[in-house]
Design brief:
This protein has eleven helices and no strands. By secondary structure, the chain is mainly alpha-helical.
């Protein structure tokens, strides 16, 4: 109830990163209608997206996705978090964008930032492709970022995301100026795709 909500909000500014992290978790888990999404709460969560601790950054971005509403400050924080050194933070930032970013250009900025950071798994790419599918039109920066992601595949499970990224690259680059050279190199066995043969 109200006491739980108040304790979680108060914990967002605690000196212990574990308390800040757990407070974000509590806010993310509360029923959406039980948490007044006021400017103060959104501002605190947006600040925590840049926290010194990666777990806090990850959980703050997740909480923004759970309780957020369109908010310019939160959107700006998520765009920056989309290029975080920790890929789980990038995944959470992309996941929260639909809740707090009201302008497609903001989503494109986050996507291009996230896709240009080489990942060791396919989580970021999968999340990015899902967002790209919802966007209308094409964008030269997005085409370039998708090409970079295709040229730097991750590893492990989920390589189907690379196939979907190639499909999106072709859709957004219909004249093939950027897509064809990339796909030709992949078809020729370049860019370490031998690791993905099982997929």
């Amino acid at each position: 109830g109200a006491a739980c909500r108040q304790a979680a909000v108060a914990g967002l500014t605690d000196s212990d990163w574990r308390v800040r992290s757990a407070s974000c978790d509590v806010l993310a888990a509360l029923p959406k209608d039980s948490l007044p999404v006021d400017d103060a709460v959104l501002s605190l969560l947006a600040e925590l997206v840049a926290d010194e601790n990666a777990w806090v950054r990850f959980r703050a971005a997740t909480a923004l996705g759970a309780v957020g509403r369109p908010d310019a400050k939160a959107a700006t924080a998520l765009v920056k978090a989309a290029q975080d050194e920790t890929q789980w933070v990038r995944i959470a930032a992309l996941g929260a964008l639909n809740q707090v970013a009201s302008e497609p250009r903001v989503i494109v900025a986050a996507l291009t930032a996230a896709l240009r950071v080489p990942s060791t798994s396919f989580g970021v790419l999968g999340r990015a492709v899902g967002l790209i599918e919802k966007l209308d039109g094409n964008d030269a920066e997005l085409v370039s970022a998708l090409a970079f992601a295709v040229e730097h595949p991750g590893e492990g499970m989920g390589a189907d995301s690379v196939n979907k990224a190639m499909e999106q690259l072709v859709r957004l680059d219909p004249d093939g100026q950027r897509a064809v050279p990339v796909l030709a190199r992949v078809a020729a066995g370049a860019d370490e795709y031998d690791r993905l043969r099982g997929n």
